[in-house]
């Protein structure tokens, strides 16, 4: 009976007038997929028209805008590889943000307001570092465009002697596994119109899928450890080397949850509630989150060669510190905090940790140890 209902619902959705379907779409893409027959490029224009073309080779460059046609920038395809998870020396400046969730306007405002990018959305941070702690997918209308912006900035930073570090978040793994509960309707409609699962547009034969698979889950820059959600007692007891965690998570992204569980207990833990992309016990004290004890936090930091852990994932009103500054949580409601001029990121400079918003004003969060 459930199968029959699903088929009927699908047929009903396909019966929608073409105009109504288009009106639910907005500017999107490109999605670039490599096939035996060539390179498939899928875009949606400002009128909601889907362009699905096959070319003998990938486009050298292409233009990207947000879902309303704003914030234009040009992207060039390029080779890439996994960045080193460990940067021993502390850069002069590190700008750290998290959880943009499909809101390109919030990303551009924050990066321009702190002189990380210029008015043309080009890298202007020189030899300094930008760290993005996961969760570009879901909730907003411009997830794909944000991926392409960071894709572009990573290359521009490298050419300038700087660095853009991207970390996996739980919403990356959700979308890659087919869990679209937080996705805007436009993405589901696009997949339905193309006759595919949305996750297939980010598969191992896609440009963005390959790039995202090159991201790490945990990294250390100087004496700071970065991870999307957190590291707790379960993580400490597993005693997994960070390169192993990073390799396993990159392997996991192209599988569904049941498949991850079947592959290995390690993979199932890493993708689960107490793994690095979901664990909330660094900042929440309810027992169901298995809150960390101070001595366990110190053991994790000592084993990692770090003084603090910087996370996103758990949304708070403002950038907040815990355990006397050993934990910093960056995740806020970006749209609300942009409007109310509250903190949305941190700047690490000169041994100090500043909370910053869209105007570049600095508020000391915690001194260096």
What do these coordinates show?
This protein is of the alpha/beta class and 369 residues long. It has 2 domains: 2-64, no CATH class; 86-367, 4-Layer Sandwich (Purple Acid Phosphatase, chain A, domain 2), CATH 3.60.21.10. The chain has 13 helices and 17 strands. Strands 6-10-11-12-14-13 form a 6-stranded mixed β-sheet. The longest helix is centred in the middle third of the chain and has 18 residues, at 143-160. Mean pLDDT is 93; it is low at 1-17.
CATH architecture designation of the largest domain: 4-Layer Sandwich
Order of helices and strands: HHEEEEEEEHEHEHHHEEHHHHHEEEHEEE
Largest sheet: 6 strands, mixed
The count of DSSP E runs of length 2 or more, i.e. the number of strands, is 17
How many structural domains? 2
Instruction: Quote the CATH topology of the largest domain.
Output: Purple Acid Phosphatase, chain A, domain 2
The order of strands across the largest sheet is 6-10-11-12-14-13
Which percent range describes the beta-strand content? 15-25%
The chain-level structural class is alpha/beta
Task: Describe the structure concisely.
The protein has 369 residues and is α/β, with parallel strands linked by helices. Helix content is 32%, strand content 21%. It is globular and about 55 Å long.
